[in-house]
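Q: I have 342 residues here and want to know how they pack in 3D. Can you give me a structure?
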Amino acid sequence: MSKSSPSLIEEMRARARPAVSLYRTAACHLHAYATRGTPTASAKTLFAGDQVTEIVLRAATTQATLASSSWAGALGHAAVDDSIMAIATTSAAAGLIQKGMKISFGNAASVKVPGRLLDANDAGSWLTEGAAIRVRNQRITAGPTLQPHKLMVITTFSREMTESSNIEAVSRALIAESTGLALDLNAPASIIAGVTPITGVAGGGLAALEGDMKALMAALSAANGGANPVLIMNPAQATALSLLASPRFDIPVLRSTSIPTGTIVLIEASSFVSAFGAVPDFEVGNQMVLHFEDTAPSDPVMAGVPVKSTWSSELIALRMRLWASWSMRATGHAQVVTGATW
């Protein structure tokens, strides 16, 4: 096999997804900590010639502020957005984020999003030649105010992992899985909070499935939704749906283990809005005690087990912090059935 020409190599680098820079940044921080070097030096060692990685590493310096829309800020937001897209196949929340409106926090403490008001009376009019155009009163709803919340991920790596050439692939897998689980634990649950649930049709089977789908769509249509509906459900329920529904069933289904079996969520995806910070923050350390609990974490001195010392286990912990928030732009555009029997 002949060696690749320089032009082909450059072309392959140019095609790299923005998310690659984010995961490589995490890998550089881990490698630098293990080798007692700097992230920039690790970038040159692990990813020689990759200029994108170096730009991301410089994003926090005074020369490349995140407020700069023409350089670090734009690149950072692209990397975060592409990272969410990359986990959309394994995370229901990530899939929903990709289908809805996406905005950036930038340096703002909060972002006010205009509400969505769907009313046929506000539409334009068909006119005959010479007829006067109707002038509608503009109606604007307040809409949600998105305030940033911390999306935190902590993962641990053995020293052997961080010194390995496979650290990029390992960090990508662990960060993506942790981010996807964190999104799923909060996104669907928060947007259906306060929504009056629809009781599932009893009896099971296809009749119950049809009844639940009709009830969900009727409720969404009553709120002038239904243009871009998305279902979110437990994987077990999604399997039952695929077995019972017709091949012509065309509503996208997002699977999430955070949704209990028997709970079916229907959302107007175009009314969902999310906001993220420009770039995540990474911190690395190995002298701490961590509570390895993903259900109800608490202070290690109160929790008991499982508690592990990163120092004695020779583990390196990576903590990622990303500002994020989401909401619905219209009332009634998130509906839920509980107690589904199919």
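Q: Anything worth noting?
A: The chain is about 40% helix and 20% strand. The CA atoms of residues 151 and 182 lie 7 Å apart.
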